[in-house]
């Protein structure tokens, strides 16, 4: 009997250890967010290239900046950047941006040639594309909320609803794939798990969808009672949600960490660095970096 109880105790301890390990922080032991620079107005839209450099926007100053992962320095990549917001690199190192100035979706080539890929749907201007994510086929999901900008002449949207759209892999067809939002904002997905996360920042909710082969979305479910601006995922399926610092959820929706940032608002987050194991954080007028135990999934390190 004592031997049986001992086995149960050992098994219980093992299960407890597994459970604890499952919910440990993905932040590197002892690491704290390190300020890179706070010389901006409002930082947004970080996107990592295949070398680990991170491009981000200073939206009110209408410019895209580049953080060099090797030198830890920041330089101006593009001025007059269409008031770009969310950004994402495709496999050919074109930088796709949600160009908010004229409600467009841009593709910026490696030599900085700008192509307007989308500027509306069904003869109506978009509300203002905000964030985007590319699937393994090369198609793009993007959110289209409505934030009235002081630099717009229009004072109301042409579209009644705020939706999530899918741009086909050949970049010729755009289709609404989700609606029912107040302000759909952050968006991120995993082609491996065939899931897409969308934040409705006004409702303070993050929703999870299943991605189908044709690009449509099914099985909408509430994932977290938190709104978010930008979001990212790591190789363990943890979701990083922004606003009050960075909150990390595991793939089951359990909160496993809260990364404190010394700013009123954290706007966005992505993984960068040569091994994609640096969490790059945009927060109000600043950008930070944080070493991680996990890594991003964009470049399959």
From TrEMBL:
* Domain of life of the organism encoding this protein: Bacteria
According to the UniProt entry, what is the EC number of this protein? 3.1.1.17
> What keywords tag this UniProt record?
Hydrolase
Q: What class of enzyme is it?
A: hydrolase
Q: Is Hydrolase tagged as a keyword? A: yes
Q: What is this protein called?
A: Gluconolactonase
Taxonomy of the source species = Bacteria, Pseudomonadati, Bacteroidota, Flavobacteriia, Flavobacteriales
């Amino acid at each position: 009997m004592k031997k049986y109880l001992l086995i149960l105790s050992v098994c219980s301890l093992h299960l407890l250890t597994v459970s604890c390990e499952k919910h440990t922080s993905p932040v590197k032991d002892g690491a704290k967010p390190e300020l890179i620079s706070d010389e901006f107005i409002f930082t947004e839209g970080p996107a990592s290239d295949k070398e680990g450099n991170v491009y981000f926007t200073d939206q009110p100053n209408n410019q895209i900046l580049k953080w060099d992962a090797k030198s830890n320095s920041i330089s101006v990549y593009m001025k007059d950047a269409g008031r770009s917001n969310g950004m994402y690199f495709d496999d050919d190192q074109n930088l796709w941006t949600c160009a908010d100035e004229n409600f467009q979706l841009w593709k910026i080539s490696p030599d900085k040639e700008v192509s307007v890929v989308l500027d509306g749907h069904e003869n109506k201007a978009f509300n203002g594309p905000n964030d985007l994510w590319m699937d393994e086929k090369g198609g793009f999901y993007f959110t289209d909320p409505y934030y009235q900008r002081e630099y717009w002449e229009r004072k109301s949207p042409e579209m009644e609803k705020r939706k999530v759209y899918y741009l086909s892999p050949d970049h010729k067809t755009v289709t609404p794939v989700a609606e029912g939002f107040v302000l759909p904002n952050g968006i991120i997905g995993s082609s491996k798990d065939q899931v897409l996360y969308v934040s409705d920042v006004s409702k303070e909710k993050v929703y999870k969808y299943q991605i189908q082969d044709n690009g449509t979305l099914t099985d909408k479910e509430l994932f977290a009672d938190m709104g978010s601006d930008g979001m990212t995922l790591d190789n363990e399926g943890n979701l990083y949600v922004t606003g009050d610092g960075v909150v990390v959820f595991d793939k089951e929706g359990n909160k496993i960490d809260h990364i404190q940032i010394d700013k009123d608002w954290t706007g966005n987050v992505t993984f960068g660095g040569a091994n994609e194991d640096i969490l790059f954080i945009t927060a109000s007028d600043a950008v930070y970096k944080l070493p991680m135990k996990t890594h991003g999934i964009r470049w399959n390190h």
